[in-house]
Design brief:
alpha+beta; eight-stranded mixed beta sheet; about 25% strand; globular
């Protein structure tokens, strides 16, 4: 992901964004899905330039994982990158893509964190609260928390905990001998469901199919905007 250098954020901006996250956190619900999903979406955002964002949604059948829809939205961004507040750069554009979807998913897998965030408000959680739909995050790097490295074989899992020992996610080896993924619930989803769906969406690659295909189509759509 492209993260250009920016000068330190305005303390007043940070205070305002922190308050917004704290307010949104009050609306987070962690629970199992009421039924097995029939459609699962993957979404991802990238920044082709420092001032533009391209967000993608793909929708797949579940459990077959057949692609039924792919769509994107390209726009400008006004908020500079501020560590811990990336969701405020990504969420507005993701909401615009979601509005375009003809097939609304039962659950969304987000390329990023859910509650595995210093204020429990990663992009998966923030997007889920704003849409009030089930979401969870599958991230490629740790943002916060402590964990022991999972075993080297595919399917090995270890807990991701905060400094008080509270479970905020799980660390998954999605393919033999590669760097692990960080799976955490976002909103209207729980940890067990997030991990179960992640495992069910693995098809021999490091990334599960919803976010892998979102990333793939992001690269394809970038060719359309050049």
């Amino acid at each position: 992901m492209y993260r250009p250098y920016h000068p330190p954020a305005d303390p007043l901006v940070v205070r305002d964004l922190t308050q917004q996250q704290n307010d949104l956190r009050q609306r987070v619900q962690l629970m199992p899905l009421p039924a097995a999903p029939r459609l699962i979406a993957g979404c991802d955002s990238s920044f082709p330039t420092p001032d533009t964002i391209l967000s993608v949604f793909v929708v797949l059948t579940f459990p077959e994982l057949q692609l039924v829809e792919k769509i994107y939205h390209h726009d400008t961004v006004t908020l500079p990158y501020v560590p811990g507040f990336l969701a405020f750069r990504e969420a507005p554009n993701l909401l615009r893509v979601y509005e375009k979807l003809q097939h609304k998913p039962d659950v969304i897998m987000v390329d990023g964190h859910g509650i595995a965030h210093p204020r429990r408000m990663g992009i998966a959680t923030q997007l889920g609260v704003l849409l009030d739909v089930p979401t969870f995050g599958v991230a490629k790097q740790k943002l916060t928390g402590n964990y022991e490295e999972p075993g080297l074989e595919k399917g090995s899992i270890t807990p991701l905990t905060d400094k008080s020992g509270e479970l905020i996610g799980q660390v998954l080896r999605s393919k033999d001998k590669i760097k692990p993924l960080f799976v955490s619930p976002g909103h209207r989803c729980d940890q067990a469901t997030a991990m179960q769906l992640t495992l069910a969406c693995l098809r021999g690659y490091k990334l599960p199919e919803p976010t892998r295909l979102a990333d793939y189509w992001a690269e394809q759509f970038k060719k359309e905007i050049r």
